[in-house]
């Protein structure tokens, strides 16, 4: 099983990762605002992650760490 983490303080909430995820397990947070004033991406179902790296490859701010 893969372990996906997001650096929520670095994320600007652009949504590129949300659109890139083939498993649809990412969303833009509606309740959390980081120190930069953005709603960052969040994981909705970490058990469903298949470590495809789509989120990490599309993220312009290098917010993702995926461990297999």
Give the arrangement of secondary structure elements.
Blueprint: E1 3-6, H1 16-20, E2 26-28, E3 41-43, H2 54-58, E4 64-67
Antiparallel strand pairs: 1-4, 2-3
Report on this structure:
By secondary structure, this protein is α+β, with helices and mostly antiparallel strands. It has a single domain (3-67), classed as Alpha-Beta Plaits, CATH 3.30.70. It contains two helices and four strands; from the N terminus they run βαββαβ. The longest helix has 5 residues, at 16-20. The model has no long low-confidence stretch (mean pLDDT 96).
> What is the oligomer described by this structure?
single chain
**Poorly predicted runs:** none
In the CATH classification, which architecture applies? 2-Layer Sandwich
Mean pLDDT: 96
The ordered string of helix (H) and strand (E) elements is: EHEEHE
| Secondary structure: helix percent | 10-25%
**How many domains is the backbone divided into?**
1
**If strands are numbered along the chain, what order do they take across the biggest sheet?**
1-4
Classified by CATH, the class is Alpha Beta
Q: How many strands appear in the DSSP assignment?
A: 4
What brief labels describe this structure?
68 residues, globular, Alpha-Beta Plaits, two-stranded antiparallel ribbon, alpha+beta
Summary of the model, kept short:
The chain has 68 residues and is an alpha+beta fold. 15% of the residues lie in helices and 21% in strands.
